[in-house]
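Colleagues,

For the teaching module next term, I've prepared a clean inverse folding example: a structure given as tokens, and then the sequence designed for it. I'd like students to try predicting residues themselves before seeing the answer, so please don't circulate the second half yet.
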């Protein structure tokens, strides 16, 4: 009933507060049905519906700026802000993005996809507002998991120091993707206890005061001991110490309470943090029970192939059994990167640092300097956040840190912020870094075995899954010829996706399993034969593998023709991996055209 009435912020404000709960229930049903069909982030969106409704009910977007941290919880925001009828297209080609996009709507105050950015963006927008003499509000909605990122604390320090007029809404569901870790998580847990303390105190006083004759005396005695009880159950006010007014915790699913407190703080002249407790997966029993599993789901279309993370899950604990130096590290992504089995088997050598990739990399450098063999399992898109730490702390010191880079290459429906198409470029420029790309799980297993003996920085990058099992042995620092043809056309394919496409053509196919350093012996042999070379990589052309081949061949074999295939100098927008590959010409069909 309310779904059809609301397609704008103005429509929402016409509803009575008593009607908002029913509207939230309708949104919850729509999100569940759509995400089950299209795939997407389910638990986080179900847990933030009431908060988002409350924010839009009280504030006036787009004049007031509402910034979503990470952005994977912004489905309700999209529905309210004029995109209701397009919601069924979310995460599809040509449809709505699964994250806020400035180019998609004026209500999307900032394009986001990575964690811990909202507070810094809020500071920038607030200062822009003040410099222009404007009066609108700036609100940042940040999850408790995002607060484990160091960028958040840099912003908090700045906000408090400069008394920035921003409102921080903390969505505390005790989760990031995996369960939250660290001292901050424990601190927030103690703040949740403060709410329980207040509720218990109120109930006790109500019950005791009703006792005949002695009730009032007992209440007065309780009041005298109140401060000692508080000191035992509460903690000091961390945010207040930063200069930020802290209020909460509040029920993040009680729309009436949400609206009331937002109205109270709307015109505060100092920074305010509102702490709301929510349940990730709210309204869907299986998602509430297992929010990690339902953080992101694949939709109705089955996923193809075998996950590379399965190989990591099986092999890394075996390495740790044989070698006491092996340590596994994750940044709140244990399930997605295949580390849960390691964590269960070797808890003392497993470290989840939360959403803090920079810290993870430099900590790995410290572990390596201390004599251990750290393996940092991370998605490609998130590793790029720690580029300076890889350069400064790992590579300059030539430390044996192994980066297991999952979701490399085009990543599909998560959109432009999550594409793993830059790692060959930014890793390839670093002196001393070795970069490998396994063609299947068997080759990844052999690379992991070999990695134990590598005493320098090593990166092994792979997409989510592979379809073809080649099962040929891995030889370090060399390429292999997987297919021979009776012609002069050679495809140098980096990674399993590229190999699968090349193998469908009548060409000579070389598996570039070591992307850096180049196998110059093989390259010289091919180039000297008068071959025509095509390089293929699931990566940006700028700074990528193909350009390195081109530069070398131009200097050593001037008569050899080289064609580079990869992603052109623009961001990858497609919500479908196959479409991304087709648009970049990374297909067998395009190869056949080139060789005609």
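(Answer key — instructors only)
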């Amino acid at each position: 009933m309310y779904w059809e009435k609301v397609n704008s912020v103005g429509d929402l404000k016409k509803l009575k507060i008593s009607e908002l709960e029913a509207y939230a229930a309708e949104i919850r049903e729509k999100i569940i049905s759509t995400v089950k069909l299209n795939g997407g982030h389910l638990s986080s969106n179900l847990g933030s519906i009431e908060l988002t409704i409350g924010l839009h009910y009280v504030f006036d977007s787009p004049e007031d700026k509402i910034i979503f941290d990470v952005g994977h919880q912004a489905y309700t925001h999209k529905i309210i802000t004029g995109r209701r009828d397009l919601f069924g297209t979310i995460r599809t080609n040509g449809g709505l993005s699964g994250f806020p996009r400035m180019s998609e709507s004026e209500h999307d105050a900032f394009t986001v996809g990575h964690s811990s950015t909202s507070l810094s963006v809020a500071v920038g927008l607030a200062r822009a507002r003040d410099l222009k003499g404007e009066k609108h509000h700036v609100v940042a909605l940040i999850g408790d998991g995002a607060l484990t990122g160091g960028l958040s604390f840099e912003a908090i320090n700045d906000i408090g120091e400069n008394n920035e007029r921003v409102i921080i809404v903390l969505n505390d569901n005790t989760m990031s993707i995996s369960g939250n870790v660290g001292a901050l998580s424990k601190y927030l847990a103690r703040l949740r206890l403060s709410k329980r303390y207040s509720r218990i105190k109120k109930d006790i006083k109500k019950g005791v005061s009703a006792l005949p004759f002695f009730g009032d005396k007992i209440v007065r005695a309780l009041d005298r001991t109140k401060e000692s009880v508080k000191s035992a159950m509460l903690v000091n006010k961390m945010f207040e110490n930063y200069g930020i007014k802290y209020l909460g915790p509040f029920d993040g699913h009680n729309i009436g309470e949400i609206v009331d407190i937002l109205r109270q703080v709307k015109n505060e002249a100092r920074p305010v943090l509102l702490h709301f407790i929510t349940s990730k997966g709210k309204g869907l029993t299986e998602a509430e029970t297992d929010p990690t599993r339902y953080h992101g789901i694949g939709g109705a279309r089955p996923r193809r192939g075998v996950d590379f993370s399965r190989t990591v899950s099986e092999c890394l604990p075996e390495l740790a059994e044989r070698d006491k130096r092996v340590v596994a590290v994750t940044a709140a992504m244990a399930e997605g990167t295949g580390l849960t089995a390691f964590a269960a088997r070797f808890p003392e050598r497993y470290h989840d640092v939360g959403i803090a990739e920079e810290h993870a990399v430099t900590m790995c450098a410290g572990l390596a300097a201390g004599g251990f063999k750290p393996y940092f399992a991370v998605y490609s898109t998130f590793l790029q956040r720690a580029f300076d730490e890889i350069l400064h702390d790992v590579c300059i010191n030539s430390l044996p840190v192994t980066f297991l880079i999952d979701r490399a290459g085009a990543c599909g429906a998560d959109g432009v912020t999550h594409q793993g198409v830059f790692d060959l470029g930014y890793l390839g420029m670093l002196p001393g870094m070795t970069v490998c790309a396994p063609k299947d799980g068997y080759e990844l297993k052999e690379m992991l075995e070999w990695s134990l003996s590598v005493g320098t920085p090593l990166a092994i990058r792979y997409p989510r899954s592979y379809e073809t099992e080649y099962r040929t042995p891995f030889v370090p620092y060399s390429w292999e010829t997987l297919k021979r043809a009776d012609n002069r056309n050679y495809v140098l394919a980096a990674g399993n996706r590229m190999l699968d496409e090349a193998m469908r053509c009548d060409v000579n196919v070389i598996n570039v399993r070591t992307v850096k350093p180049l196998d110059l012996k093989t390259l010289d042999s091919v180039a000297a034969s008068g071959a025509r070379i095509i390089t293929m990589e699931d990566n940006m052309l700028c700074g990528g593998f193909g350009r390195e081949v081109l530069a070398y061949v131009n200097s050593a074999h001037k008569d050899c023709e080289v064609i580079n295939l990869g992603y052109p100098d623009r961001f990858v927008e497609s919500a479908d991996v196959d479409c991304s590959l087709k648009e970049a010409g990374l297909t067998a069909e395009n190869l056949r055209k080139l060789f005609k």
